[in-house]
Amino acid sequence: MSDETLGRIADALERISPPPAPPPDFSTADVFVWHPGAAAANDALTPVAKVNRVDIDLLQGIDRSRQTLLDNTERFARGLAANNALLWGSRGMGKSSLVKAVHARVNEGPNRLLLVEILRDDIPTMGRLLTIVRANPDERFLLFCDDLSFDKDDAHYKSLKAALDGGVEGRPANALFYATSNRRHLMPRDMIENERQTAINPSEATEEKVSLSDRFGLWLGFHACDQTQYLDMIRAYCNAYGIEIDEDTVRAEAIEWRQTRGSVSGRVAWQFVQDLAGRRGVSIDN
User: Which of 6, 94, 158, 182 lies most in the core, judged by the most C-beta atoms within 10 Å?
Assistant: First the structure.
């Protein structure tokens, strides 16, 4: 085979196989999204120019959880010991909003912290992400997975357990993992009960399933709010965004709104405020 033919084959292979992704430039942003490729050479951390988040002071009714997570994150940013955190509980009560808001508040101080979002379906590639983290010891990484849960026959939880434990290398000292979930043990109760009924040793099978949540040293529960907290959330948003409305009117409209939704939560409060702002000609930057 001639050198010319070999050269054409090599050129064709290069066109078929894309070049490896360049190493991430962490000076371009404080927030990144993990995009794993088909192979480690094609993995990418994509910077987020504008983050969808609210100010931490607007998160009402979760004072204790807010302060606990903020303290834990600030310690980590300063290079001190901190725990992985699981934020679990009722939907729409500000779990993911709190993580992003805490990150923003910490970065207002002298210690810079990078937030990296990883999707649940990409959990099996988390080991490759930790390799990048280890290669950048001068940066501190807060790895974040929103709405984390596992269903029957889902083996992703084993990958996460291994990543949180870190294997023989241990979890990188410059990485912390935060997750939000509607489930305290990250798995549906019927899945755990099924393990008890079908396993040869029910207690061992159950321990295997629920041990993942034990990898989180910090558990923060988010519970459904009452009407007073719901109205406080709305008033805080109205004040922050300059929506002028008297107390009696906003109370009547807010209660009617949540009755039509059949639920009361921080998310419902925010949706009402968006509707209210639109009707009153007030622009809200999400």
Answer: 94
